Amino acid sequence: MKRMVYGIGLFLALLFLGAGFFLSYQVADLRKEMTGLRESGGQDRQQVSALASLKDRELVFEAYEEGSLLRNRYRITADGPEQIVLRREEEESTGDDREFLLKVEEGCITVYDKESGEVFEHTNIPLETLPQELQAEVLLGKTLSGDQELYSFLENYSS
Question: Domain limits at 117?
């Protein structure tokens, strides 16, 4: 009978020791997890404070569509923990979207704004100084796209 009591006592002692080791391991694991959460919470606060400094910054999104580069500009106007408000900013006109029409008046080239039909510039470039192919295009009404192409044409044939 004494053996049985000692056996049960030993069993219970081993059971309590095993449970104690198991619980101490669980508590240590929970402490590591809480420490990790505190550190990541600090990093999240740093990231949120970094986002707060993005207000009034300009963002540019570029995409190619049908062979041409499109640029969309946005400005961050407001931000919160779950949203950012962007305002699209209009591009300043650089003259690249304008079209010009070349015609002959009194033997010289005249440049018209294609959209309004108004005279943009009278030139002193005689039609005869242009190459044959270009003369034919001008007589039919040659179109130039953008300020750069117009000024390049004028620079090449004005002197």
Answer: 99-157
